[in-house]
Amino acid sequence: MSADPLHPPSPNPASGRTTARTAAVIPAAGRGVRLGPGAPKALRALGGTPMLVHAVRAMADSRAVSLVVVVAPPDGALEVKSLLDAHALPERTDFVVVPGGGSRQESVKLGLDALPPGYDIVLVHDAARPLVPVDTVDAVIEAVRGGAPAVVPALPLADTVKQVEPAAAPGDPEPVVATPDRSLLRAVQTPQGFDRVTLVRAHETVRDDVTDDASMVEQLGLTVVTVPGHEEAFKVTRPLDLVLAEAVLARRRHNDGF
Ligand SMILES: Nc1ccn([C@@H]2O[C@H](COP(=O)(O)OP(=O)(O)OP(=O)(O)O)[C@@H](O)[C@H]2O)c(=O)n1
Ligand SMILES: C[C@](O)(CO)[C@H](O)COP(=O)(O)O
Where is this site: Transition state stabilizer (predicted)? Predict the structure, then answer.
């Protein structure tokens, strides 16, 4: 049968397959240098529970997610395994823990390598985004099921953005060279969702250091699309973020009657 030019084959093998199985990879091997001294960031407490446990629950809360691969600090896989065993997690979800690498990108690749066959859709979610709502997770999965090979949750920017040149000497002011059109800029979050074949190809092909997985798919020349992100999916990066995360969690618990 010859190819139909009006209906080319979908670039996404998971397209339209509402039964496609979904796994989440959670890179959690970072130190959290910007958060300040202490345990590895993913293991620090938020509302008395390690941030990583919140992030794992956020993925497992989606009924579509049946496997979560946690990428632990390189020497902390056993500790992370015990931690997950000690916390109540949904029984319908399987968990795998693997040691991570020296960069986020390496850690995600190690998580992908540990994925068993049979999962066509893969989410990549930062342990450092413990409060992402399940509706955001499900919106990402739906968009991948709908045919997009790569999907990112995104929010408009609240601040005006300036492009600068490096300062002439440390401590000197940086000259502003441009003010990009803010209406066309987005801050992207996780989970980012992918058809598995595309994500594996991106990690095998792209050698540049990048800060998110979607940009690797962009480098393959494929289209990445956005779905609405959520303010509560923010990344705990600096100390003030942890204060905000505690406040958001306390409000949720109050609203839920805990
Ligand atoms: N070698 C690394 C580095 C980062 N990550 C993970 O990637 C996510 C990205 O969040 P980020 O705030 O960049 O985490 P850190 O790298 O830990 O932060 P910092 O740069 O402040 O050390 C985190 O869940 C982090 O654990 C990882 O799995 N492996
Ligand atoms: C993946 C990410 O969270 C999307 O916003 C972000 O790029 C991670 O960047 P970081 O420099 O590792 O914090």
Answer: 34, 41
| C-alpha 15 – ligand 2 centre gap (Å) | 27
55 lines ligand 1 (CB under 6 A): no
Pairing of strands 186-188, 176-178: unpaired
Cβ–ligand 1 distance for 192 under 6 Å, the answer no
CATH number for the domain spanning 141: value is 3.90.550.10
* CA 41 to the chain's CA centroid: 15
Query: Ligand 1: which of 80, 126, 236 to mutate, most ligand atoms within 8 Å of CB?
Result: 126
What pTM was computed for the model?
0.93
Range of the domain at 213: 22-153+189-255
- The DSSP line for 160-224 is ---EEPPPSSTTSPPPEEE---GGG-EEE-S-EEEEHHHHHHHHHH--S--SSSHHHHHHTTPPE
In a domain, 126, yes or no: yes
0.85 surpassed by complex ipTM: yes
The residue assigned the tokens 């399987």 is 94
